[in-house]
Write a structure and sequence with these properties.
binds adenosine-5'-diphosphate, Rossmann fold, globular, binds magnesium ion, six-stranded mixed beta sheet, four-stranded antiparallel beta sheet, alpha/beta, single chain
């Protein structure tokens, strides 16, 4: 199992006045090559769950094994390394740096990995071609269209050939056409063997035929209807 969570809980600011119990007793497994949607109202814990799956921090309690590694057993430095090798993140509003070129944005995740410049450019050009945005490689990212920006964000999440793709409310700022296009690309990635987890309360996402399973989160717990 690529993602295996057992009785996972997350408490922010534990023991302090501002303590928040964000997740409680989450059991979730996701097998390789499947696409899961985390659905639930704002504040229910979706982003926190993605952060744990995304190896940003380990759970406060419970077990989280991502690509066969138990997060709680990894020192911070190794957690970061494991994240870079395993996880491609697509953020809401895409977190693209507008003053850098498209090419620079896409290769950014490779910098801390010490990948040589030539290899970086080659991988980026393959992805740019695949997503039909080669002609934008040297444009500042702030000057391209919304649809192109979305493809840049996806390309960046694929640059290190990570097996797991996570997307947090990816369609929140997209129109219907771009949202459909986003899901069509996710379907292609799934067909290519990627494992995908998307947090979203957009019906265009959770009702999409490419989604194998929708998990509803409510008050930090998995809601069983
Ligand atoms: N860094 C943080 N520090 C403290 N509380 C947080 C932090 N991030 C999220 N929370 C709280 O945890 C709960 C779950 O938040 P989140 O995972 O962002 O939910 P969602 O993505 O479903 O909107 C909310 O009550 C939120 O305020
Ligand atoms: Mg969120």
């Amino acid at each position: 199992m690529l993602i295996e969570l057992s009785q996972v809980s997350k408490i922010y600011n534990q023991g302090r006045a501002n303590e928040v119990r964000a997740l409680t007793g989450i059991d979730l497994t996701v097998e390789q090559g499947s696409m899961v949607c985390l659905k639930g109202p704002s504040g229910s814990g979706k982003s926190t769950l993605l952060a744990i799956i995304g190896c940003i921090f380990p759970p406060t309690s419970g077990k989280a094994a991502i690509a066969e590694r138990q997060l709680a057993r990894l020192p911070d430095r190794f957690l970061t390394l494991h994240r870079r090798e395993t996880i491609g993140f697509i953020f809401q509003r895409f977190n693209i740096l507008p003053e850098l070129t498209v090419l620079e944005n896409i290769t950014l995740p490779l910098l801390p990995l010490g990948v040589a410049p030539k290899e970086r450019r080659q991988r980026a050009h393959e992805l740019l071609e695949r997503f039909g945005i080669s002609h934008r490689a040297l444009f500042p990212a702030g000057q391209i269209s919304g649809g192109e920006l979305q493809r840049v964000a996806i390309a960046r999440a694929l640059i290190n050939n990570q097996p797991i793709i996570l997307a947090d409310e990816p369609t929140a700022h997209l129109d219907t056409t771009l949202s459909r296009e986003f899901m069509a690309i996710m379907l292609q990635l799934k067909a290519a063997g990627k494992t995908i987890v998307i947090a979203s309360h957009d019906p265009l996402v959770f009702e999409h035929p490419a989604i194998d399973r929708t998990v509803t989160i409510q008050d930090g717990r998995i809601h069983v209807p």
